[in-house]
Amino acid sequence: MQHLETDYTSPDGVTLYLQAWLPETSRASLLLVHGLGEHSGRYGGLIHSLTALGIAVFTFDGRGHGKSSLPKPTAYVDSYEKYLEDIHALVEKVNSYHPGKPLFLFGHSMGGGLASAYILKYQPKLAGVILSAPAIMEAAGTSKILIALSGVLNDLAPKLNAVKLDIEGISRIEMEVEKYINDPLVYKKSIPVRTGYELYQMMQFIQKNASEFDVPLLLMHGTADRLTNPEGSELLYEKAKTHYKTLQLVPGAYHELLNDSDREKVLETILNWLEVKLG
Description:
Low-confidence stretches: 141-149, 152-157
CATH class: Alpha Beta
CATH architecture: 3-Layer(aba) Sandwich
Structural class: alpha/beta
Strand content: 15-25%
Number of domains: 1
């Protein structure tokens, strides 16, 4: 297997860190979009299993994240639509690298929301999409006053640190929480106002257009997820017009399904779904 690392400069001048894992013989490709505050280097187990299936994996550290935001991550997302443009450019790169091969998209948390919004806006030709705890719906009971205030602060102080992430809510496995806390490429401070505002706009776009979702879909969400709302996954599953869709709610699971107590079952579900899609 070959591991490649390089940089990509977006049309608006942002340099992004890219990496890829290429098996000797590829049956398909997959573009992985990581979650809020983290980075693409945290998916080693999934990547190893995918390449063993003959799937080439491409991924990147998003704007404000990981090695795309050295010397330290900021988790600052100025525009979710610019992020979608990055995803689109990389989808085209993957297709040119492996022309004619099936292409899958995987998105976790914020990355799951971005993947969903990308599909709805760009209508790409994909073999399927896998969403892990996607950010599709705001937390239940979110105050309208708080939403209005975020809009004001977005104009006045977009880089103000506002909302603290619930780090303890990523996994029921203490060692995984410790690894997250000790990872220097993970952003652990409060999320900037602009990032929160843009993700809220992204979620509203998905909810409004969910009925146009027409890509084979595997949705997975923990029922005890405190970081993203499982009701968002249920909404997308119910509204998506694709006939090939599966929703798996994992009882009692926390946010990072691939790093939580049921990770072996979750990984098996993903791999089995891909095998069926590849025939």
